[in-house]
Amino acid sequence: MSPAEEERSLPLPERWPRASKFALSACAAAVAELVTFPLDLTKTRLQIQGEAAAGPAVPYRGMLRTAAGIAQEEGVWKLWQGATPAVYRHIVYSGVRMVTYEHLRDSVLGRAEGESFPLWKAVVGGVSAGAIGQFFASPTDLVKVQMQMEGKRKLEGKPLRFRGVHHAFLKILSEGGVRGLWAGWVPNVQRAALVNMGDLTTYDTVKHFLLLNTTLVDNSVTHSVSSVCSGLVAAVLGTPADVVKTRIMNQPRDKQGRGLLYKSSMDCLIQTVQGEGFMSLYKGFTPTWMRMAPWSLVFWLTYEQIRRLCGVTSF
């Protein structure tokens, strides 16, 4: 049998390992996103709530009252408003970050199979993979954030900006050009780098620590413990940048696509801290953490289960 025929006889995951893991990651992320999306919507509304630069302060509502308010005032299904671009985002973001992290870890940073991986190398791989994945996915994140605020605009008597996901993409493109689709990409990439430093790095490190130093085996218990740890660390590291990202993406813009409230991510950070205090950078932390832990759990359990069914090699 010739090498070409031998290659064609291999299972698809072995012939196209990176493409298979991209598809696997995208499927797992879509499931996790849909299950936990109401917490993401609640987090976004909390991060905008009380925005000092946007006008008079409004009475603060916590996580539960915000979620209940959305359901009562706008309808239960509005808790999933913006879910479509969120799924689009994760198809790009999760697929790219997983494939990039594995490539960096195995080919660039040189982790040998079955051996411990230095924490600093895991951090470098996680930060780089998150930044690259989020840069490509930033336009979908922009649409998601703006669509999540449409229900609030309707309640305030303001005209709706978009008729749907594709109209949102076209409108942003027509008003701000290609650069307009990447509005807020700097804090977005910063957030993703920090979140992935917490998520991928912690999951990978905890999982391999448990496998090498305890009696646990590669099963759902190991995945669950690793997921809970990675979700908590990711929320602590990523929430401040997430608040800045959300506010920059949601701010009104002029005809040239320039923000009317903030000049840059640093300007947004300074205005937020000066106007609302340092802890305002952790607005939405509770739903962020409550979402990241189950999101990470659903993602990794789905990923591992599909991986085994498809015969893809372990993460």
Automatic annotation (TrEMBL):
Keywords associated with the record: Membrane, Mitochondrion, Mitochondrion inner membrane, Repeat, Transmembrane, Transmembrane helix, Transport
Subcellular location: Mitochondrion inner membrane
PROSITE patterns: SOLCAR
Start and stop residues of the Solcar repeats: 20-107, 117-209, 218-309
Gene Ontology CC: mitochondrial inner membrane
GO biological process, one term: transmembrane transport
Pfam families documented for this protein: Mito_carr (PF00153)
Membrane topology: Multi-pass membrane protein
Keyword hit for Transport: yes
Family membership: Belongs to the mitochondrial carrier (TC 2.A.29) family.
Subunit relationships: Homotetramer.
Function as written in the Swiss-Prot or TrEMBL entry: Facilitates proton transport across the inner mitochondrial membrane and may dissipate excessive proton gradient associated with oxidative and metabolic stress at neuronal synapses. Regulates glutamate-induced proton conductance in astrocytes, shifting the energy metabolism toward aerobic glycolysis and lactate transfer to neurons for ATP synthesis. Can transport chloride ions with lower efficiency. The transport mechanism remains to be elucidated.
Name of the protein this chain belongs to: Mitochondrial uncoupling protein 4
Source organism: Agelaius phoeniceus (Red-winged blackbird)
Gene expressing this chain: Slc25a27
